[in-house]
Amino acid sequence: MNISLWVIWLIIAVFMLIIELATTNLVTIWFTVGALVAMVMDICGASTAAQIITMAVISLVCFVLCMLLIRPKLESLRKKNMQRTNADRLIGREGTVIVPLNAMEGKGQVKVDGQIWSAKADSDIAEGIKVIIKSIEGVKLVVEIAPET
Predict the structure, then answer these.
(1) For 38, which of 5, 44, 51, 111 could close a Cys bridge (C-beta 3.0–4.6 Å)?
(2) Are 98 and 129 in contact (CB under 8 A)?
(3) What are the tens digits of pLDDT across the range 74-89?
């Protein structure tokens, strides 16, 4: 049984497309395009070496274009559509330490806007000290001592 090379290129393209659809992370789409171009070249009578080289070059060009042009736009759209939670509004706010923060154990509590949160800091912080919320990791606020005003 002699399978034509264009059939092999088609199988590669379909396989890469299935992987791409399963991952949705722009992982193999460029190989799909390269294999389709190589398939057309085989149908037109190009040599096997020319098909392989073209498939590699087209895949590389598609990869570069994707990384430079398409992926940044998709990332910005993804970030734009990201839903912020109520906890995100705490970042940059000031709170007061109500249970001393222990940097080694990552324990302590901070009161922010009347709510009590678990918190951690890079250094120990005593009770009653004003802190600024820098970020949120899981259910803990990451804080640092607030600058004097």
Answers:
(1) 51
(2) no
(3) 777 776 665 556 667 8
- On whether the CB atoms of residues 93 and 146 are closer than 8 A, the answer is no
Question: Are residues 7 and 14 in contact, defined by beta-carbon separation less than 8 angstroms?
Answer: no
Q: Which two tokens stand for residue 37?
A: 């171009």
Q: How far apart are the first and last CA of the chain?
A: 83
- The answer to whether 51 and 5 are in contact (CB under 8 A) is yes
Would you give the distance in Å from CA 27 to the centre of its chain?
13
Q: With contact defined as beta carbons under 8 Å apart, do 87 and 112 qualify?
A: no
pLDDT at position 82 is 58
Q: What pTM was estimated for this model as a whole?
A: 0.51
Identity (one letter) of the amino acid at 143? V
Is residue 17 within 8 Å of 34, Cβ to Cβ?
A: no
Residues in a beta bridge with 131: 95, 145
d(CA 42, CA 49): 10
User: Alpha-carbon distance 40 to 53, whole Å?
Assistant: 14
